[in-house]
Every structure is written in C-alpha cells, then in structure tokens.
Amino acid sequence: MPSTKPLPIRGSRCRTPAVTCASSGAPRNEHRVPLGKAAGIGRRPVAAMNGRLSSHFKAMPPWAVIVLGLALVAVAGVADGVSGPQFSFSAFYLIPVVFTAWYAGRGAGIAVAVAGAVAWLAADVAGKSYHKHALTRIWNDAVELSLFLSAAFVISALRGRLEREEEQARTDQLTGIANRRRFNELAGDEIRRSRRYRNSFSVMYIDIDNFKVVNDTMGHSEGDRLLRQVAAAIGGSIRESDTVARLGGDEFALLLPEAGEDAARSVATKLRERLKAEVESRWPVTFSIGMVTYLDAPATVDDMIRRADLLMYQVKGGGKDELRHEVVARGEGE
C-alpha cells in the first residue's frame, strides 16, 4: 500500500496535487530511448511530413480518392499522347492505380485501372503509333490492362492484410477488446484534444480482487472465462465513445472522453451494478476501482494511468471492493 494520505471514497471531491508514485502499483518499463538515437534526428521532419500526408489521404472519402486517381490518369494520358511512341508511360499509369487501390480499396483500384487502360489506348491512337497488325494495339492494351488490374489486386490485398495485422496488434487476443498499446494511443489523442478544446475527461483503473483464487481453485480456463465476462460486462455498460482495454493480467482500464465529474460517476454506478449482476454473482470476486476526472489534461499518458492506478491500490490496501474518485482541478493536471 502506497504511503500517501488516503483519498475520500465513493466519488468524494479531492483537490490533491499530482502524486509521484514509487509503489508497486506504478507502471513498469519507464525507460525511454531518446528519439534522436532511436530514429535519427535528420529523418524526423521527413517522417513527420510523410505521416501527415498519409493521414490526409486516409481521411479523404473514397470518391475523392477516385477522382484524384482519375485526374492523375488523365494527366498521364495527355503526356503520353503528346510525347509519342518514343517514350513509355506505363509506370505513370500505374501510380494512380496503386494510389487508389491503397487508399480507396480494390473496387476503386479496378475502376482506375480500366480508366488507365482506356487512356493508354487513346494515347496510342492519338500518337499515331504504327502497328503492322491491327490486333497488336488490342493485344498491347490488354496486356496493359492486366498489368494495372494485377497491381490493383495486389496492392488492395496487401493493404487489407496490413490493416488486419495492425488491428490484431491493438487487440487483446483473449477478450477481443483493446490492449495497452491501443489504449495508450487513444489516451494520447484524448489528452491532446483536451488541451486544445479545454474538455474534461475521466479514466478508470479496474482490478479484479481474488482473481488468483479463481485460477488456483477453478483452473486457468475458468479464469479466462472470467476475464472475457468482465470485458463484456464493462463493454455493455459504457458509451459508444468510451474505450475499455485490458492492460494485462486482471487489470482493465476505461477511458471516458469528455466525461466530467457527474458523467463519470454515472458511468461508474452503472458499471458497478453490471459487474455485480454479471460477474460477482458467478465468481467469488469483487472489484477495486480507481477513477480520476481531469478538468485539465495531465502531462502524459503514463501520468494519467499512474494516478488512477494509485487510487486503485489504495482501495486494495483498504479492504478492496470499492471505488475511489479524484477530481483534478484546473491547473493541477500538468
């Protein structure tokens, strides 16, 4: 149990300053490799620019990506027709196909691929290319179309596979909810949003009391079923904008965007009732919960989690099966 002054329980309002926790409840792996050493200072501006550009294209609606792809095809077709048969422009037709398939999907990529083949044929005709046999032009265009279609299929399949792998990397495989990595990403986004718009938000740190007893007496498979049920119970009692994550073992976290003191208490009351009905009635467990409402954003995600973690450990040290709620006033979050 951390050697700090106990905080009021059951949603009491608290104006304590930020706590530096060195207890066993503090998050591990605090070491950070300097960014310059890990990635190279010289590459940071380029990487940041590429990231912003990619995010911009991802945010575009599919129809806008298709229009942009068709515009690039038109530019390539005009340049191909003007330059004549002496120069090959196949690669320039491929660029919009790859771009569209990556950012708008296979169907859009196929549409742009067909448009690219038509533009290539039109440029061939406009350039008055000579072909000994009439079928040569048709054959060449068919080859170009097959090349463009292959690119659309391969790129869209690669993008789909990468998206599935990214989703798996951000999902807890046992419960199907977000994992620590995904939670940290969303929490970081919420901190930045809170700083920009001065919105409050809340976070809960939830620990299952006596989970080890369930594993030891009922088996690990029963422990897994308990974890899945806890995830389902939490997920069924929160808003669509909220995020529940399993941080590891029997510890869960809940992020409540734009939730002030009253909204957080309402969610916590509903959550505890559902946990009692769906979990505590079936397994010999209870829940220790630490909840923090930030009227000002904390400095980092680690600071945000640490504060809620500390409250949770105070509950465990004081008898378990309780909720402690702290409200961090403006000016105390940083």
Automatic annotation (TrEMBL):
Keywords: Membrane, Transmembrane, Transmembrane helix. It comes from the Bacteria. Residues 199-328 form the GGDEF domain. InterPro entries: DGC-Regulatory_Protein, GGDEF_dom, KdpD_sf, Nucleotide_cyclase, Rev_trsase/Diguanyl_cyclase. The chain crosses the membrane at residues 60-79, 91-122. GO terms for molecular function: ATP binding; kinase activity. The keyword Translocase does not apply. GO terms for cellular component: membrane. GO terms for biological process: phosphorelay signal transduction system. CDD domains: GGDEF. PANTHER family: DIGUANYLATE CYCLASE DGCT-RELATED. This is GGDEF domain-containing protein. It comes from Geobacter metallireducens.
